[in-house]
Amino acid sequence: MGIIEKIKEIEAEMARTQKNKATEYHLGQLKAKIAKLRTQLLEPPKGASGGGEGFEVSKYGHGRVALIGFPSVGKSTLLTMLTGTLSEAASYEFTTLTCIPGIIHYNDTKIQLLDLPGIIEGASEGKGRGRQVIAVAKSSDLVLMVLDASKSEGHRQILTKELEAVGLRLNKTPPQIYFKKKKTGGISFNSTLPLTHVDEKLCYQILHEYKIHNAEVLFREDATVDDLIDVIEGNRKYIKCVYVYNKIDVIGIDDVDRLARQPNSIVISCNLKLNLDRLLARMWEEMGLVRIYTKPQGQQPDFADPCVLSAGRGGCTVEDFCNYLHRSLVKEVKYVLAWGTSARHYPQHCGLSHILNDEDVVQVVKKKEKEDGGRGRFKSHTTGPARISDREKKAPLKT
Fold first, then answer.
1. Using CA atoms, how far apart are residues 327 and 43, in angstroms rounded to an integer?
2. pLDDT in tens, 196-244
3. Strand partners, 237
4. Rounded Cα gap, residues 265 and 255, in angstroms
5. Residue 248: CB partners within 8 Å, gap ≥ 6?
6. Which stretches of sequence are listed as region Disordered (predicted)?
7. Main-chain phi, psi angles of 337, to 5 degrees
8. How many CA atoms lie within 13 A of 154 on its CB side?
9. For residue 118, which of 108, 132, 139 has the smallest C-alpha distance?
10. What pLDDT is stored for residue 367 in this prediction?
11. Where are the alpha helices (DSSP H) in the chain?
Protein backbone atom coordinates (compact mmCIF):
# COMPACT_ATOMS: atom_id res chain seq x y z
CA MET A 1 0.00 0.00 0.00
CA GLY A 2 1.39 3.41 -1.00
CA ILE A 3 1.65 6.50 1.21
CA ILE A 4 -1.30 8.24 -0.48
CA GLU A 5 -3.53 5.18 0.05
CA LYS A 6 -2.50 5.03 3.74
CA ILE A 7 -3.37 8.73 4.18
CA LYS A 8 -6.80 8.24 2.56
CA GLU A 9 -7.46 5.18 4.75
CA ILE A 10 -6.63 7.09 7.95
CA GLU A 11 -8.76 10.07 6.82
CA ALA A 12 -11.69 7.69 6.20
CA GLU A 13 -11.23 6.23 9.69
CA MET A 14 -11.19 9.75 11.21
CA ALA A 15 -14.42 10.57 9.33
CA ARG A 16 -16.08 7.44 10.74
CA THR A 17 -14.95 8.09 14.32
CA GLN A 18 -17.28 10.13 16.53
CA LYS A 19 -15.69 13.09 18.28
CA ASN A 20 -16.13 12.89 22.03
CA LYS A 21 -14.09 12.67 25.23
CA ALA A 22 -13.49 8.93 24.85
CA THR A 23 -12.14 9.09 21.28
CA GLU A 24 -9.95 12.22 21.49
CA TYR A 25 -6.80 10.16 22.26
CA HIS A 26 -7.45 7.89 19.26
CA LEU A 27 -8.05 10.90 16.97
CA GLY A 28 -4.85 12.54 18.22
CA GLN A 29 -2.83 9.43 17.32
CA LEU A 30 -4.43 9.34 13.85
CA LYS A 31 -3.55 13.01 13.26
CA ALA A 32 0.07 12.28 14.22
CA LYS A 33 0.17 9.34 11.78
CA ILE A 34 -1.16 11.50 8.93
CA ALA A 35 1.43 14.23 9.67
CA LYS A 36 4.23 11.62 9.57
CA LEU A 37 3.01 10.18 6.26
CA ARG A 38 2.68 13.64 4.66
CA THR A 39 6.25 14.45 5.71
CA GLN A 40 7.41 11.20 4.03
CA LEU A 41 5.43 12.18 0.93
CA LEU A 42 7.39 15.45 0.63
CA GLU A 43 10.79 13.75 0.99
CA PRO A 44 12.59 12.83 -2.26
CA PRO A 45 12.68 9.09 -3.04
CA LYS A 46 15.71 7.19 -1.78
CA GLY A 47 18.46 6.76 -4.35
CA ALA A 48 17.25 9.70 -6.45
CA SER A 49 20.15 11.65 -7.94
CA GLY A 50 19.56 15.39 -7.75
CA GLY A 51 16.25 17.23 -7.74
CA GLY A 52 13.61 17.01 -10.41
CA GLU A 53 12.67 19.77 -12.77
CA GLY A 54 11.38 22.71 -10.76
CA PHE A 55 10.79 26.39 -11.35
CA GLU A 56 12.80 27.92 -8.54
CA VAL A 57 14.09 31.31 -9.65
CA SER A 58 16.85 33.20 -7.87
CA LYS A 59 15.75 35.73 -5.25
CA TYR A 60 15.91 39.34 -6.39
CA GLY A 61 14.89 42.60 -4.79
CA HIS A 62 13.80 43.33 -1.23
CA GLY A 63 10.86 40.90 -1.02
CA ARG A 64 9.15 38.05 -2.83
CA VAL A 65 5.42 37.60 -3.49
CA ALA A 66 3.89 34.45 -5.03
CA LEU A 67 0.62 34.30 -6.97
CA ILE A 68 -1.29 31.07 -6.23
CA GLY A 69 -4.71 30.05 -7.51
CA PHE A 70 -6.75 27.78 -9.72
CA PRO A 71 -6.23 27.92 -13.50
CA SER A 72 -7.80 30.85 -15.42
CA VAL A 73 -8.44 33.22 -12.49
CA GLY A 74 -6.30 36.09 -13.85
CA LYS A 75 -2.84 35.53 -12.32
CA SER A 76 -0.92 36.17 -15.56
CA THR A 77 -2.98 39.28 -16.35
CA LEU A 78 -2.35 40.62 -12.84
CA LEU A 79 1.44 40.05 -13.21
CA THR A 80 1.46 41.86 -16.57
CA MET A 81 -0.46 44.85 -15.18
CA LEU A 82 1.62 45.23 -11.99
CA THR A 83 5.12 44.59 -13.39
CA GLY A 84 4.96 45.13 -17.15
CA THR A 85 6.44 41.65 -17.69
CA LEU A 86 4.54 39.88 -20.47
CA SER A 87 2.99 36.64 -19.24
CA GLU A 88 0.89 34.75 -21.78
CA ALA A 89 -2.83 34.89 -21.00
CA ALA A 90 -5.52 33.00 -22.90
CA SER A 91 -9.08 31.74 -22.46
CA TYR A 92 -8.02 28.13 -21.82
CA GLU A 93 -6.68 26.57 -18.61
CA PHE A 94 -2.99 25.94 -17.83
CA THR A 95 -1.72 28.71 -20.14
CA THR A 96 1.22 29.27 -17.76
CA LEU A 97 3.36 26.12 -17.48
CA THR A 98 6.39 27.48 -15.62
CA CYS A 99 7.30 30.19 -13.11
CA ILE A 100 7.43 33.70 -14.64
CA PRO A 101 9.08 36.40 -12.46
CA GLY A 102 8.44 40.14 -12.60
CA ILE A 103 9.61 43.17 -10.61
CA ILE A 104 7.31 45.74 -8.96
CA HIS A 105 8.95 49.15 -8.32
CA TYR A 106 7.05 50.57 -5.35
CA ASN A 107 8.12 53.12 -2.70
CA ASP A 108 11.81 53.06 -3.81
CA THR A 109 11.92 49.25 -3.36
CA LYS A 110 11.95 46.28 -5.71
CA ILE A 111 9.47 43.48 -5.00
CA GLN A 112 9.72 40.23 -6.94
CA LEU A 113 6.33 38.89 -8.10
CA LEU A 114 6.11 35.26 -9.24
CA ASP A 115 3.38 34.00 -11.57
CA LEU A 116 3.02 30.27 -10.82
CA PRO A 117 1.03 27.65 -12.78
CA GLY A 118 -2.51 27.02 -11.59
CA ILE A 119 -2.86 24.29 -8.96
CA ILE A 120 -5.73 21.83 -8.72
CA GLU A 121 -7.27 19.70 -5.99
CA GLY A 122 -4.75 17.03 -5.00
CA ALA A 123 -1.73 19.29 -5.63
CA SER A 124 -0.20 18.31 -2.27
CA GLU A 125 -0.01 14.71 -3.55
CA GLY A 126 1.84 15.79 -6.70
CA LYS A 127 -1.03 16.29 -9.17
CA GLY A 128 -0.40 18.92 -11.87
CA ARG A 129 3.15 19.66 -10.65
CA GLY A 130 1.54 20.96 -7.47
CA ARG A 131 4.53 20.16 -5.25
CA GLN A 132 6.91 22.37 -7.25
CA VAL A 133 4.40 25.24 -7.17
CA ILE A 134 3.94 24.99 -3.41
CA ALA A 135 7.73 24.68 -2.86
CA VAL A 136 8.21 28.08 -4.55
CA ALA A 137 5.43 29.54 -2.39
CA LYS A 138 7.27 28.32 0.74
CA SER A 139 10.26 30.53 -0.15
CA SER A 140 8.08 33.66 -0.51
CA ASP A 141 7.51 36.45 2.00
CA LEU A 142 3.83 36.82 1.07
CA VAL A 143 1.25 34.70 -0.79
CA LEU A 144 -1.44 36.31 -2.95
CA MET A 145 -4.22 33.73 -3.35
CA VAL A 146 -6.03 34.83 -6.52
CA LEU A 147 -9.67 33.70 -6.58
CA ASP A 148 -12.51 34.11 -9.08
CA ALA A 149 -15.24 36.23 -7.47
CA SER A 150 -17.89 34.64 -9.68
CA LYS A 151 -17.07 31.08 -8.54
CA SER A 152 -18.11 29.34 -5.31
CA GLU A 153 -16.52 30.06 -1.94
CA GLY A 154 -15.28 26.45 -1.75
CA HIS A 155 -12.22 27.25 -3.88
CA ARG A 156 -10.67 29.19 -1.01
CA GLN A 157 -11.09 26.23 1.39
CA ILE A 158 -9.66 23.77 -1.16
CA LEU A 159 -6.53 25.87 -1.76
CA THR A 160 -6.01 26.48 1.97
CA LYS A 161 -6.33 22.74 2.64
CA GLU A 162 -3.78 21.89 -0.09
CA LEU A 163 -1.26 24.41 1.28
CA GLU A 164 -1.72 23.25 4.88
CA ALA A 165 -1.19 19.61 3.80
CA VAL A 166 2.42 20.43 2.84
CA GLY A 167 3.27 22.46 5.95
CA LEU A 168 2.24 26.01 5.00
CA ARG A 169 0.30 27.82 7.72
CA LEU A 170 -1.50 30.88 6.37
CA ASN A 171 -2.01 33.98 8.57
CA LYS A 172 -1.01 32.08 11.73
CA THR A 173 1.73 32.61 14.29
CA PRO A 174 3.98 29.83 15.62
CA PRO A 175 2.39 28.21 18.71
CA GLN A 176 3.86 29.10 22.09
CA ILE A 177 5.06 25.56 22.87
CA TYR A 178 8.59 24.80 24.04
CA PHE A 179 9.77 21.38 22.87
CA LYS A 180 13.24 19.88 23.27
CA LYS A 181 14.45 16.31 22.86
CA LYS A 182 16.67 14.83 25.59
CA LYS A 183 18.85 11.75 25.90
CA THR A 184 17.50 10.57 29.26
CA GLY A 185 14.98 11.55 31.91
CA GLY A 186 11.66 10.59 30.32
CA ILE A 187 9.00 13.07 29.23
CA SER A 188 8.55 16.26 31.24
CA PHE A 189 5.11 17.85 30.65
CA ASN A 190 4.29 21.32 32.04
CA SER A 191 1.98 24.24 31.26
CA THR A 192 1.68 27.83 32.46
CA LEU A 193 -2.15 27.91 32.12
CA PRO A 194 -5.08 25.45 32.17
CA LEU A 195 -5.28 23.38 28.95
CA THR A 196 -8.64 22.49 27.34
CA HIS A 197 -7.54 20.67 24.16
CA VAL A 198 -4.47 18.63 25.22
CA ASP A 199 -3.67 16.74 28.42
CA GLU A 200 -0.60 14.83 29.58
CA LYS A 201 -1.80 11.40 28.39
CA LEU A 202 -2.57 12.67 24.86
CA CYS A 203 0.84 14.39 24.67
CA TYR A 204 2.56 11.13 25.70
CA GLN A 205 0.69 9.14 23.05
CA ILE A 206 1.60 11.59 20.26
CA LEU A 207 5.28 11.62 21.30
CA HIS A 208 5.34 7.80 21.42
CA GLU A 209 3.89 7.76 17.89
CA TYR A 210 7.02 9.68 16.85
CA LYS A 211 9.16 7.28 18.94
CA ILE A 212 10.20 10.09 21.28
CA HIS A 213 10.53 8.84 24.87
CA ASN A 214 12.76 11.57 26.40
CA ALA A 215 11.70 15.17 25.89
CA GLU A 216 10.70 18.39 27.61
CA VAL A 217 7.33 19.99 26.68
CA LEU A 218 6.07 23.33 28.02
CA PHE A 219 2.75 24.89 26.92
CA ARG A 220 2.62 28.70 27.16
CA GLU A 221 -0.82 28.91 25.49
CA ASP A 222 -3.97 26.81 25.19
CA ALA A 223 -2.83 25.05 22.00
CA THR A 224 -4.55 22.26 20.06
CA VAL A 225 -3.32 18.80 19.03
CA ASP A 226 -2.47 20.12 15.55
CA ASP A 227 -0.27 22.85 17.06
CA LEU A 228 1.64 20.25 19.11
CA ILE A 229 2.19 18.08 16.01
CA ASP A 230 3.45 21.15 14.07
CA VAL A 231 6.02 21.87 16.80
CA ILE A 232 7.21 18.24 16.88
CA GLU A 233 7.54 18.11 13.08
CA GLY A 234 9.50 21.39 13.08
CA ASN A 235 9.21 21.95 9.30
CA ARG A 236 6.18 24.26 9.19
CA LYS A 237 6.35 27.64 7.44
CA TYR A 238 4.17 30.43 8.84
CA ILE A 239 3.44 32.90 6.06
CA LYS A 240 1.07 35.81 5.48
CA CYS A 241 -1.63 35.46 2.82
CA VAL A 242 -3.94 37.97 1.14
CA TYR A 243 -7.04 36.65 -0.65
CA VAL A 244 -7.43 38.57 -3.93
CA TYR A 245 -10.89 38.30 -5.53
CA ASN A 246 -10.59 39.06 -9.25
CA LYS A 247 -13.37 39.63 -11.86
CA ILE A 248 -15.62 41.72 -9.59
CA ASP A 249 -17.02 43.39 -12.72
CA VAL A 250 -19.20 40.31 -13.42
CA ILE A 251 -20.97 40.16 -10.01
CA GLY A 252 -23.36 42.47 -8.14
CA ILE A 253 -22.37 45.26 -5.77
CA ASP A 254 -23.80 43.37 -2.75
CA ASP A 255 -21.47 40.40 -3.41
CA VAL A 256 -18.51 42.75 -3.88
CA ASP A 257 -19.27 44.40 -0.53
CA ARG A 258 -19.56 41.00 1.20
CA LEU A 259 -16.21 39.76 -0.22
CA ALA A 260 -14.42 43.03 0.58
CA ARG A 261 -15.46 42.82 4.25
CA GLN A 262 -13.94 39.36 4.78
CA PRO A 263 -10.67 39.29 6.78
CA ASN A 264 -7.40 39.43 4.78
CA SER A 265 -9.35 39.94 1.54
CA ILE A 266 -9.25 42.53 -1.23
CA VAL A 267 -11.37 42.83 -4.40
CA ILE A 268 -9.95 43.85 -7.81
CA SER A 269 -10.75 43.75 -11.51
CA CYS A 270 -7.88 43.31 -13.97
CA ASN A 271 -10.26 43.85 -16.89
CA LEU A 272 -11.36 47.33 -15.74
CA LYS A 273 -8.15 48.07 -13.71
CA LEU A 274 -10.10 48.54 -10.48
CA ASN A 275 -8.49 48.78 -7.01
CA LEU A 276 -4.96 47.80 -8.15
CA ASP A 277 -3.40 50.71 -6.22
CA ARG A 278 -5.04 49.47 -3.01
CA LEU A 279 -3.68 45.96 -3.71
CA LEU A 280 -0.12 47.34 -3.90
CA ALA A 281 -0.65 49.29 -0.66
CA ARG A 282 -1.96 46.14 1.06
CA MET A 283 1.05 44.13 -0.16
CA TRP A 284 3.39 46.78 1.25
CA GLU A 285 1.53 46.78 4.57
CA GLU A 286 1.59 42.97 4.94
CA MET A 287 5.28 42.60 4.00
CA GLY A 288 6.34 45.14 6.63
CA LEU A 289 9.30 46.55 4.68
CA VAL A 290 11.26 49.31 6.48
CA ARG A 291 13.29 51.87 4.48
CA ILE A 292 16.32 53.35 6.24
CA TYR A 293 18.22 56.33 4.78
CA THR A 294 21.90 56.82 5.61
CA LYS A 295 23.50 60.13 6.60
CA PRO A 296 27.28 60.59 6.39
CA GLN A 297 28.84 62.85 9.03
CA GLY A 298 28.61 66.54 8.08
CA GLN A 299 26.56 65.83 4.93
CA GLN A 300 22.92 65.69 3.86
CA PRO A 301 21.03 62.35 4.03
CA ASP A 302 21.03 60.16 0.93
CA PHE A 303 17.35 59.79 -0.03
CA ALA A 304 18.08 58.18 -3.41
CA ASP A 305 18.93 54.61 -2.40
CA PRO A 306 17.45 53.39 0.93
CA CYS A 307 18.52 50.29 2.87
CA VAL A 308 15.43 48.04 3.08
CA LEU A 309 14.94 45.82 6.15
CA SER A 310 12.06 43.61 7.24
CA ALA A 311 11.14 41.53 10.29
CA GLY A 312 11.01 38.39 8.15
CA ARG A 313 14.49 38.92 6.69
CA GLY A 314 16.79 39.53 9.62
CA GLY A 315 14.98 42.17 11.68
CA CYS A 316 14.68 45.97 11.98
CA THR A 317 17.05 46.89 14.83
CA VAL A 318 20.15 49.09 14.60
CA GLU A 319 22.31 45.97 14.85
CA ASP A 320 20.52 44.42 11.85
CA PHE A 321 21.02 47.69 9.94
CA CYS A 322 24.77 47.63 10.67
CA ASN A 323 24.98 43.98 9.56
CA TYR A 324 23.15 44.97 6.36
CA LEU A 325 25.85 47.57 5.62
CA HIS A 326 28.82 45.39 6.58
CA ARG A 327 29.43 42.39 8.81
CA SER A 328 32.29 43.94 10.77
CA LEU A 329 30.59 47.31 11.35
CA VAL A 330 28.87 46.24 14.60
CA LYS A 331 32.21 45.88 16.43
CA GLU A 332 33.28 49.40 15.39
CA VAL A 333 30.06 51.26 16.33
CA LYS A 334 30.43 53.87 19.10
CA TYR A 335 26.85 55.15 18.92
CA VAL A 336 24.11 55.82 16.37
CA LEU A 337 22.12 59.00 15.71
CA ALA A 338 18.54 58.50 14.51
CA TRP A 339 15.94 60.86 13.05
CA GLY A 340 12.36 59.79 12.32
CA THR A 341 9.30 58.28 13.98
CA SER A 342 11.35 55.84 16.09
CA ALA A 343 13.26 58.72 17.77
CA ARG A 344 11.87 60.57 20.80
CA HIS A 345 13.86 63.71 19.91
CA TYR A 346 16.05 64.74 16.97
CA PRO A 347 18.68 63.39 16.86
CA GLN A 348 18.46 60.55 19.38
CA HIS A 349 21.53 58.64 20.54
CA CYS A 350 20.68 54.95 20.05
CA GLY A 351 22.19 51.62 20.94
CA LEU A 352 22.26 48.43 18.89
CA SER A 353 18.91 47.20 20.26
CA HIS A 354 16.93 50.28 19.10
CA ILE A 355 14.08 49.32 16.71
CA LEU A 356 13.91 51.44 13.54
CA ASN A 357 10.74 52.52 11.74
CA ASP A 358 10.00 53.17 8.09
CA GLU A 359 11.80 56.18 6.51
CA ASP A 360 14.15 56.76 9.46
CA VAL A 361 17.48 58.56 8.88
CA VAL A 362 20.47 56.95 10.59
CA GLN A 363 24.05 58.13 11.10
CA VAL A 364 26.60 55.61 12.41
CA VAL A 365 29.50 57.00 14.46
CA LYS A 366 32.50 54.66 14.64
CA LYS A 367 35.06 54.33 17.40
CA LYS A 368 38.34 56.15 16.85
CA GLU A 369 41.43 54.00 16.57
CA LYS A 370 43.75 54.27 19.57
CA GLU A 371 47.18 55.68 18.85
CA ASP A 372 49.95 53.49 20.21
CA GLY A 373 52.66 56.10 20.57
CA GLY A 374 50.94 58.67 22.78
CA ARG A 375 49.39 62.01 21.78
CA GLY A 376 50.65 65.55 21.07
CA ARG A 377 54.20 66.33 22.19
CA PHE A 378 54.39 62.96 23.96
CA LYS A 379 54.12 61.14 20.65
CA SER A 380 57.25 59.20 19.82
CA HIS A 381 58.44 59.45 16.24
CA THR A 382 60.97 56.68 16.45
CA THR A 383 60.26 53.20 15.20
CA GLY A 384 62.77 51.54 17.51
CA PRO A 385 61.93 49.52 20.65
CA ALA A 386 60.63 51.41 23.69
CA ARG A 387 62.83 49.70 26.31
CA ILE A 388 66.61 50.24 26.41
CA SER A 389 67.23 46.57 27.09
CA ASP A 390 65.46 45.65 23.82
CA ARG A 391 67.69 47.85 21.66
CA GLU A 392 70.38 46.33 19.53
CA LYS A 393 73.82 46.74 21.03
CA LYS A 394 76.38 48.34 18.79
CA ALA A 395 79.52 46.51 18.03
CA PRO A 396 82.48 47.58 20.24
CA LEU A 397 84.90 50.09 18.76
CA LYS A 398 88.07 48.74 17.32
CA THR A 399 91.18 49.91 19.17
1. 35
2. 988 898 899 999 988 899 999 999 999 999 999 999 988 888 999 999 9
3. 168
4. 13
5. 149, 256, 259, 267, 268, 269, 274
6. 366-399
7. -100, 135
8. 3
9. 132
10. 85
11. 3-16, 24-42, 75-83, 130-138, 154-165, 200-209, 225-233, 253-260, 276-287, 318-325, 329-332
